[in-house]
Amino acid sequence: MRFFRSGAPRASASDTAASASGADAAFLPPGDGRGAGVRPGTGPTSPSGAPGPQGESASVHGAWADDVLAHRFSRVDRTHPLLAELAAWARIRLLRDAEAAARLGQSPPPAGGMPGTTGAGATAASPSATRPSRPPAPLPETPSLAALLARRPALTTPPEVVQRLSAVVGSEDATPDDVAEIILHDTYLTAAVLRIANSPLHAPLVPVESVQRAVMLLGMRQILSLVAAASLMRLMSPRDVAARRTFWRHAACSATAASALAVACGGDPARAFVAGMLHDIGHLLLMGNLPDIAAQVSRRALDAGVPILTAERELLGYDHCDIGRRLLDHWRLGDAVAEAAGLHHGPDSAGWSDITVHVHLGDFMAVALGHHMPGDELLRPPALGALERLPLTPAAFSSLVGHVLADTEAMEQALFGDGAS
Ligand SMILES: [Fe+2]
Ligand SMILES: [Fe+2]
Fold first, then answer.
1. pLDDT tens-digit profile of 275-318?
2. CA dist., res. 309 & res. 300, Å (int)
3. Which of 24, 258, 266, 307 is the residue whose CA sits 20 to 30 A from 294?
4. Which residues surround ligand 1, an ion (CB under 5 A)?
């Protein structure tokens, strides 16, 4: 399932990148001779009309993008056919962002940071610049996992609407009216659903003025995905405006990718989307309840060049996967959703459900494309056997990645609009 409508399949990103040179070439849409980036709502095959970088700036941006990618992919094998396609799309996105920054008179961040990254992620040191450091002792003020989950802040309250919708959509005899009735109890979600239904992405012939009609237009399963996406943003503490948008982008890109992979593999895309949206909920709980400790974890990961999971275990004695699994078990969204949250960092996919594989790879793709969590910008190798479970050719995978990028941006635009948080 795609969250939004997308364009037609197209040729491989790496083929196009390899067949031309310089940043101008990277702005060409794969399989298209005119020039484009990934534009919200148009799908990856549509020309943007935006000019590519010229002359000196093109070569500067190209060199910068290559440095960023060398850093981001330093721990993975970029010669793998699928990862080569992923890296080619990541480069396209970097160049597009660099060009957008240049139009605003800004320069790209150092290779260790990312365009659009806020906070600590923008000042990350490259791996070669980091020195090994001793693991720190756990922080004395850290609550145990059980104590953290026993608190009653907003985030430990389950998103009831997602629970109820998930149950209704999963039943055989659910009707659009059943779904609409749940949404109508929530003003925020009612507005979000109507906004999506009336957006240019769906372009209804007459305005959609009722939630019932929106459900019929979008479909019940797509409504569930939308509600999961909109609800997650609301769970975050309002003071962390930049951090919550960064978190949301990572979750949304992971969810969109997990859903697309589920479609490609004959799985359940709606459930994969929800699982992808919630896979890092443990991290969100940390950010909301222990913000100072969460900041120390990010700093530790950046300074020592260790995965965020390692930093969490060092400083907390547990990690966001442990938190997420326990929390989602408590929320009763289904074993598959909780398993995906608990296992999504690998390292071995043996015994995993398809949803966990798709969420794991969705998370991997989001980081590869630059939608990473703060302090977690280095791509980890995929779990053993995970890529081998994808029945996709490199060209088909490349097409899927392009649509994931476009659909993620389209969803953010439709839900939040420009500059919204
Ligand atoms: Fe994670
Ligand atoms: Fe993640």
1. 898 899 888 888 877 888 888 888 888 888 888 889 999 999 99
2. 11
3. 258
4. 280
Does the pTM surpass 0.85? The reply is no
- 80-122 per-position pLDDT tens digit: 999 999 999 999 999 998 888 888 877 766 554 433 333 333 3
What is the number of alpha carbons within 13 Å of residue 84 lying toward its C-beta? 12
Phi-psi region for residue 203, left (φ > 0), alpha (ψ -120 to 50) or beta?
left
Tell me: pLDDT of 70 over 90.
yes
* Distance, C-alpha 270 to centroid of its chain: 15
Average pLDDT over residues 325-332: 82
92 CA → ligand 2 middle, Å: 22
pLDDT, mean over the chain: 76
Which CATH code of 1.10.3210.10, 3.90.550.10, 1.20.1560.10, 2.40.110.10 fits the domain covering 148-172+237-390? 1.10.3210.10
Per-residue pLDDT for 413 more than 70? yes
Q: What span, in angstroms and rounded, lies between the C-alpha atoms of 274 and 268?
A: 10
Domain boundaries, the chain: 13-116, 148-172+237-390
Write the CB contacts of 68 (distance below 8 Å, at least 6 apart in sequence): 94, 108, 111, 114
Question: From the CA of 363, how far away is ligand 2's center (Å)?
Answer: 5
Most confident among 242-246, 274-278, 356-360 (mean pLDDT) = 356-360
- Cβ distance 138 to 312 under 8 Å? no
Give 386 Cα–ligand 1 centroid separation in angstroms: 16
C-alpha pair distances (Å), 214 with each of 139, 159, 164, 246: 49, 21, 18, 28
- Report the half-sphere exposure of 380 (CA within 13 A, side-chain side): 24
Q: Please answer whether residues 301 and 375 qualify as being in contact, where contact means their C-beta atoms are separated by less than 8 angstroms.
A: yes
Q: Distance from the CA of 373 to the center of ligand 2, in angstroms?
A: 7
- Measured in Å, residue 250 CA sits from the centre of ligand 1 at 10
Q: Please say whether the beta carbons of 344 and 321 come within 8 A.
A: yes
The position carrying tokens 């700036």 is 57
Cis, peptide link before residue 81, omega less than 30° from 0: no
**Dist. CA 360 → ligand 1 center (Å):** 9
Q: Ligand 2 centre and the CA of 14: distance in Å?
A: 25
User: What percent of the chain is modeled with pLDDT above 90?
Assistant: 30
Minimum-distance ligand to the CA of 319? Answer: 1
Task: Report the distance separating Cα 50 and Cα 339, nearest Å.
Answer: 43
Instruction: Please tell me whether residue 59 adopts helix, strand or coil conformation.
Output: helix
Structural tokens at position 162 = 């997602």
